[in-house]
Structure formats: structure tokens, C-alpha cells
Amino acid sequence: MAPKVGDPLPDATLFEGDPETKVSIKQLFGNKKGVLFAVPGAFTPGCTKTHLPSFLNDYDKLKAGGVEVIACVAVNDPFVTNAWGEAAGGTGKVRFLADPFLEFTKALGVVLEAEKMLGTNRSKRYSAVIEGGKFKSFNLEADGMGTTCSLAPNLISQL
């Protein structure tokens, strides 16, 4: 079951850039105000052409709203996730975090059954505002893959 407003952000170990660089999602957000979003896969069409660009295009608006950290989670290996962030021009704006074992995705209850289509299960597409270690909002796409409610412009009013 997906998180609800007021639920605490679960902890999980994610990877940034390579398998040696581990990131505790709970420590990353700490007591900061942040934005978290997940994509079904790096380099996939909706993620690359619509979802990620929405956060890069609205980066200044999110920062103006007090956002201290923006993180993207993808169920890919850390090398792929990192290369995708670099290719999209998101390095330095968005933290690109790999969840290759679905640890965080399972903790949130947002596993996308995509084994037949993508070779493995992935994360449903969502976005959230995290404040003080808790969910201030959680926007889960109804089909797990669309690009409507989880885009950055929808989060600006939720800050």
C-alpha cells in the first residue's frame, strides 16, 4: 500500500553513481524539505521525454518553494541511472538514485509488475513532497506508468 500524507519516509539503501556509493534515503532527506519522484526506468520514453524534464524545467520554482533536495529513484543499476542523469543534463540538480533490489520500492508498496515488458519489476511512477521526514503529499499515477499527477508542476502547489 502506497504511503499516505503524514506517513514517515521509510529507510532504504540506494546507490548513487556506482555500487560503492550507498545512500540512506532517510538520511538524505533528514529534516529537510524535498521532492522525491520515481520512474519505471531510466532511458524509457515517458521518463526521458516528459517526467524528468518536468523537474529540470521547474527546478528554479521548486527551489524557490523551499525545496532543499530533489531525488529521482529508478529500479536500474547505479551506472545506468547515473548515465541517464548525465545525458539528461540533470547532474547537480537532481540526485539520481538506483534501487536495483527494489528495497525502497517495496517499502513504499509501489512495485510495478513489469517483468514481461521490461525484464524485471520496476517502480510505479510517483512524486512526493517530503518535509520533516514525512510525506506531505504523494502522487501515484493511477496506472503506475502515466505522466499526469506525478509531474513537477503539480508539486509546486503542494510545497
UniProtKB/TrEMBL annotation:
Catalytic reaction list = [glutaredoxin]-dithiol + a hydroperoxide = [glutaredoxin]-disulfide + an alcohol + H2O
Gene3D superfamilies given for it?
Glutaredoxin (3.40.30.10)
Which Gene Ontology cellular component terms are annotated?
Answer: mitochondrion; peroxisome
Q: What's the EC number here? A: 1.11.1.25
Keywords carried by this UniProt record? Antioxidant, Oxidoreductase, Peroxidase, Redox-active center
Which GO BP annotation is one of this protein's?
hydrogen peroxide catabolic process
Q: Which GO terms describe its molecular function?
A: thioredoxin peroxidase activity
Cross-referenced InterPro entries, in alphabetical order? PRX5-like (IPR037944), Redoxin (IPR013740), Thioredoxin-like_sf (IPR036249), Thioredoxin_domain (IPR013766)
Q: What class of enzyme is it?
A: oxidoreductase
Matches recorded under CDD domains: PRX5_like (cd03013)
Domain Thioredoxin stretches: 3-159
KW Oxidoreductase (keyword) present: yes
Which residues are the active-site ones? 47
Q: Which family does it belong to?
A: Belongs to the peroxiredoxin family. Prx5 subfamily.
Function as written in the Swiss-Prot or TrEMBL entry: Thiol-specific peroxidase that catalyzes the reduction of hydrogen peroxide and organic hydroperoxides to water and alcohols, respectively. Plays a role in cell protection against oxidative stress by detoxifying peroxides.
This one is known as: Glutaredoxin-dependent peroxiredoxin
Per the UniProt record, the source organism is Apatococcus lobatus
